[in-house]
Amino acid sequence: MRPGGPLEGSVPISGAKNSVLKLMAATTLAEGGYVLHNVPRILDVDWMGDLLTSMGMVVTPAGEGSLHIDHRPDLRPEAPYELVERMRASIVVMGPLLARYGRARVAMPGGDDFGPRPIDMHLRALEDLGATFEVAHGYIEARADHLVGARLLLEFPSVGATENALMAAVLAKGTTVIDNAAREPEIADLAAFLTRMGAQIEGAGSPTITIEGVDELNPVEHTVIPDRIEAATFLAAVGIAGGEVTLQGARADHMDMLIQKLGEMGMRISPDTDGIWAFAPRRLRSADVSTLPYPGLATDYKPLLVALLATADGVGIVTENLFSGRFRYIDELVRMGADIRTEGHHAVVRGRPLLSGAPVRAPDIRAGAALVVAALKAEGETEVFDAHHIDRGYDRFVDKLRSLGADVSSA
Ligand code: UD1
C-alpha cells in the first residue's frame, strides 16, 4: 500500500455483514429452501455457512451474490466450539433454535480483542420467555418446552440480545414486547425477513418492538441491505486521500450521524439515485466523536474515524461508549507516525499532514481496514500483516480500493 492522489470513481457497496449473518441464523426457524441476494463474499458468511452445514443444512452459492439455504428435516440444534470460537456472532442461533426445536446446545463464546463481551442479556431475555439453561463442559444447554411471550426490558440496547429475543419471540405463544431494543438498520432488516416468513412484528427499528407469536413460519427469498460500515470505510478512504466517489447502492438514511460528522469535518456527502455521492478536499478539519448505539455513531466506525483524525487538521477527542479495550489498533497507527494518546475510554488525536508508512498488524476487521485507509496518507510503503481479518468483513476490499485509484495490492 502506497499513498497516491485523490480517489475518483464509483464503487459498489456489498450486502451488510451484520445483517446477513443474522438472516442466515433465522433460516433455522422453518424448514425449506431460502434464497438470499446481495450476500457479501466474506469469510464470516462462509463460517456461518459452515455452522448451518454442521447442523445438517445445505448451503450453496446461487449465482452472483446469492446464497441458497436448504433447511432439511433432522436438523441438529448445536453450535460447536470450533465455529463459535471463530465467530462470536454464532450465538444468535440460540434464540431461533430454542423457538423451533425447544432446545439448543451452543458453545460458550470466549472473550476477544474488544474485551469481555458477555451474553448475560441474551440469556436473561430467553429466560424471560421461558427457557432454562445449564452450563457444562463449555457448552450452554438451553431448553424450553414452550416459549411464552413476555415483556423484556434490556439493560442496554444490545444488538445481539435484541436479535436473539426477536428470533425466539416470533414462535413464542402470545405477545412479546422488547423494550430498550437496539435500533440498528440490521435489526429492521431481520424483522423484514421474519415478517416475510410470516412473523407478526411491529416497531423494529424503534426502541419498542412488539411481536405476536405465530405457530409456523415459511422459507422466503430476501435481499440483504447494503453494508453501512463498508460504505463508511470508503467515505473514510476518500476523507483521507481527498477526491470524489460514488458508493453504489449505499443507503444515506442508514448513516445520518456519520454523514453529519463528516460534513462537520469538511466533506460534502449527499444521497444520489445510485447510492451516496461524496467529495473531500485534500485535508479535513478535526472534530470530536463519541460512539453510541444507533442512531448514534457506530462503534464499528471508530477505527476509521481515528484514522481520519490522525491526518486531519487539528485535535479531535474520541470517546468509546460501547466496548472496553477497542483501542489496540491505535498502537499500530502510532507506529505509522500518528499522534494519539489514550486515556481510559478516550483518545486524543492530533492530526498530522502526513503519516509514515510502516509494517503494521491488523488486530480485527474494522481496525485492519482503518490501517489500510490510513496508509493512503502515509509516506512510503505500508504493509498490513494479518490482513485475513479484513477478509472476514470486506468483499474484495483491495480490488474496490484499486478501482478508485489507490495504490494497493494483496500478497
Ligand atoms: C454487534 C455487531 C458489532 C457492533 C455491535 C455494536 C454483529 C455481528 N456485530 O455486536 O459489529 O460493534 O453490535 O453496534 O452484528 N453486552 C453485555 N451483555 C450482553 C450483550 C452485550 O454486557 O448480553 C454489552 C457488550 O459487552 C457491549 C455492548 O453490550 O459492551 C454492546 O454489545 P452488542 O450491541 O450486543 O453487540 P454485538 O451484538 O455483540
What does this structure look like?
The protein has helices at 17-26, 43-55, 81-86, 94-101, 120-128, 159-169, 185-197, 228-241, 256-264, 302-311, 329-335, 365-374, 388-393, 397-403; strands spanning 7-12, 32-37, 58-61, 67-71, 78-79, 103-107, 132-136, 139-143, 151-153, 175-179, 200-202, 208-212, 221-223, 243-248, 268-272, 275-280, 289-290, 315-319, 339-343, 346-350, 355-356, 359-361, 378-379, 383-385. The protein has 411 residues and is α/β, with parallel strands linked by helices. Helix 10 (302-311) packs parallel to helix 12 (365-374). The radius of gyration is 21 Å and the shape is elongated. The chain starts with 6 loop residues before the first strand and ends in an 8-residue tail after the last helix. Bound molecules: uridine-diphosphate-N-acetylglucosamine. Uridine-diphosphate-N-acetylglucosamine (UD1) binds next to helix 1, helix 5 and helix 6.
Give the proportion of residues in helices. Answer: 25-40%
| Strand residue percentage | 15-25%
Identify the bound ligands: uridine-diphosphate-N-acetylglucosamine
Largest sheet: 4 strands, mixed
How large is the count of helical segments?
Answer: 14
**DSSP E strands, number:** 24
> Mind telling me the C-alpha Rg?
21 Å
Question: In one word, what is the shape?
Answer: elongated
Mean pLDDT: 95
Sheet with most strands: strand arrangement: 1-14-16-15
Low-confidence stretches: none
User: Span between N and C termini?
Assistant: 11 Å
Backbone structural class: alpha/beta
